Amino acid sequence: MAINLKIQLAPHNKRGLLLANPVMTASGTFGYGTEYEHLFDIQKLGAIVCKGTTLQPREGNPQPRIVETASGMLNSIGWQNIGIEALIKQKAPIWAKWRVPVIVNIAGKTINEYAKLAARLDGVKGIGGLEVNISCPNVKAGGVEFGADAKSAAKVTTAVRKATSLPVIMKLTPTTNDIVGIARAVAEAGADGVCLINTLKGMAIDVKTRKPVLGNIFGGLSGPAIKPVALAMVYQVAEAVNIPIIGCGGITTATDALEVIMAGATAVEIGTANFSNPRAPMDILEGLKKYLRKENVQDIRQLIGVARRGSLHSPSL
Ligand SMILES: Cc1cc2nc3c(=O)[nH]c(=O)nc-3n(C[C@H](O)[C@H](O)[C@H](O)COP(=O)(O)O)c2cc1C
What is the reported pLDDT for 139? Predict the structure, then answer.
């Protein structure tokens, strides 16, 4: 049976963002894509989201910056990256030759910085879209401070929207009690899609030294432990907005990806799973194909949101 895995991530954008399949990699867990080329055919992925990029290069937070937790990890990388100019010079020309679209994750300390980043990337060959990180818990200024309420999230969205014609995906934080309000606000401000979720703020303490483990004290919790949180947020937001949702958070297997799609996500991002299995995105893609064939589902889009109350799709298919 011929199956369709293609999805459109930016249906309301003139350029559009057509993906060969819904399996993407999450920012900060897959470098610039080039690092994984020797491990598998990364061109087969739906899309690659690169490491969070700022106007200036950044060294990030003090070490240690990573610690394993029960069913997940904490990280406090703190936006270590090569900066926008090096990205345009060194990475974009490589991406321009790829079949797989690359989405640049951007992060700023002020609304103006977000706008500058978006304007600078507009029209650069090799860049398929922007993912705007307003949800990082590991930096002192910027990040989650913009994502925690609907008004400021909308302000960043408006500024980025004005600065670029590229598809704009707003990446939201789970650290709020108003995920639906924030998603609605960014959709109304012109976002082409939303990605949820980023990490949850957490910490670890070493009982021998009696001190916090991470150099930054706090970090972002990710991995299987946060999947139920992501799932609930995708489900709630899917009922409230009509732009595509990218589900992210703890997705480790094809079954996880299917759950998130059934909750209402059009695509999924694989993050922490890449650290324990660098082929995870490929394995998940293969698993999705297998499921569709076995269940006689011709088009992955038939599964989007089927688990929701009042879903238009028949749950039995
Ligand atoms: C080491 C590490 C670095 C990350 N860096 C970024 C980043 O630069 N920008 C961003 O938006 N999210 C970043 N994230 C968050 C992930 O993209 C993802 O939203 C989060 O980890 C939840 O997904 P997961 O449980 O599959 O990892 C990072 C996560 C990890 C573990």
Answer: 65
What digits encode the pLDDT tens for the residues 40-51? 999 999 999 999
d(CA 231, CA 307): 11
Model pTM? 0.96
Q: Which ligand 1 atom is at minimum distance from the Cα of 131?
A: 11
68: phi then psi, degrees, rounded to nearest 5 = -80, 145
To test the ligand 1 pocket, which listed residue (29, 131, 135, 270) has its Cβ within 8 A of the most ligand atoms? 29
Catalytic residue list contains 136: yes
Only one residue has tokens 């990605």, namely 195
Cβ(138) – ligand 1 distance below 6 Å: no
SS (H, E, C) 226-293: HHHHHHHHHHHHHCCCCCCEEEECCCCCHHHHHHHHHHCCCEEEECCHHHHCCCHHHHHHHHHHHHHH
Distance of CA 197 from the midpoint of ligand 1 (Å) = 9
pLDDT tens-digit series, residues 2-56: 999 999 999 999 999 999 999 999 999 999 999 999 999 999 999 999 999 999 9
CB of residue 250 inside a 6 A radius of ligand 1? yes
44 vs 14: CA distance, rounded Å = 24
Identify the residue whose C-alpha is closest to ligand 1 atom 5: 28
Atom of ligand 1 at shortest distance to CA of 226? 25
